[in-house]
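Subject: for your reference before the review

Hello V.,

The reviewers asked for a structural picture of the protein, and I figured it would be easier to keep everything in one thread rather than splitting it across files. Below is the amino acid sequence we used in the manuscript, unchanged from the supplementary table.
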Amino acid sequence: MLVRSFIDRSAAILLQPHLYFTCDDDFMDFGDGSVYVAIMAILGALLAAVLGSAGSPYHSFGLVPALIISPLAAVVTTFAMAGIIHVLCKALGSQGDFGDSFHISASAAVFIPISQLLSAFSLMIVSIGWTWWVVSRGVICVHHAEPRKAEIVFALLYASLLLIATTND
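And here is what came back from the structure prediction:
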């Protein structure tokens, strides 16, 4: 049952983010969200090992340490990204709390294994664009931000992340 709900949640985030973020019955708190992020990080590390992704932690640490370090790093990064989302949402006038921002950030972890599959630059643009779409839908639905402002602010954020990713290669 746990695996089925995990797959259903991931499919809903990817295919129907607006519907996913408007349903209150699948809200991820800090515990559920951290577990979800850790599982996605493990899947990402396994995919990186199988596919031989050049920038993966597997090549730096080895498979077993990567399977331990990746989930921890992903959870810490999710909290940091939730902080960025929260600050931007407050600037947009949101009254939501940090838990709402964490829910959005944890939901975006569905792209960890997908980014391993789409690691070529042209496909990385698709992955970052898709992540922007999901996060902006989450901000609009959960934080009740004005749609156009949220889309522009988070487009700038993800464009800067893409720029950082391309200059670090």
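For the response letter, the relevant points are probably these. The chain has a mean pLDDT of 85. Residues 63-91 form the longest helix (29 residues).

Happy to draft the paragraph if you're swamped.

O.
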